[in-house]
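Narrative summary of target 7.
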Amino acid sequence: MHHANHFYGHAHVLARYAGLGDRHPPRINGYVQHGWNIGDGLAPGHPYAERTPSLLWSEQTRRRAWSLGRRNVTVIGAPFGYLLAMRATAEEPQPPRTGTIWYPFHGWEGQHVKGDHQELIARIRDTEPGPVTICLYWHEHRMPRVRRRYEKAGFRVICHGYRGQWWRDTDPWFLDRQLTELRRHARVASNRLTSAIFYGIAAGCEPAVYGDPMALAGEDPTFGGTARIRRQWPELHGEQVHLPTAVEIAHAELGTDHRYPPGALRELLGWTQPQLEAA
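Modeled conformation, tokenized:
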């Protein structure tokens, strides 16, 4: 299995939805898109074997992949959508939503973010009407100089968990914790349009994207970067966003209509009993 299939517990969510329980997911026959992006669904720089099936979130991403010469592509929807389907009827009654969960743009092991967190804190204070939860990516959460700035500002600071890397330390409940937190809040916001914003919209939050988008060291400009994102999705940028429009866009970008039923998903991923025995 490509190691990125385990990021954020995606393979584990799909295995649970497919009826395999909490067991370690079998090998997936393909590369599962692991985050919202404006390219062909594959993460730049990650090892990829030619002709491996690409299992993408949306029809828009499939068309971009096709335009770049990739033919073995299938739209399955985002794993977060499968989690929403599983937890739609199993949830306890929720308390009233309050405040904002805010996701500052983050780096990772190979690239650090450059930007003024203090300026971002001031903008958040001036904009958000209720209590604010800052959700830092694990990379920044482990940096005291970053984490403590938000703590000293009086914000609640959390982290959903570790993404995992090279099949190690994968947190299979990452997305579950994220969904639980999103459902506690009335708003979801960030300084860039990212997966978290689309997840928040799908989970019932009002979205906002504002503030300095910051810069990622060595950021790959191949697909147009933040400038293209702001041009192509202007409706999702600003301190206040038209919610029905945001819901429609999130629905398309997460591929909600492309979610497979459990049996068909097992067949597609190579998880039927004959396929597993032959592997």
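The chain has two domains: 3-89+256-278, 100-253.
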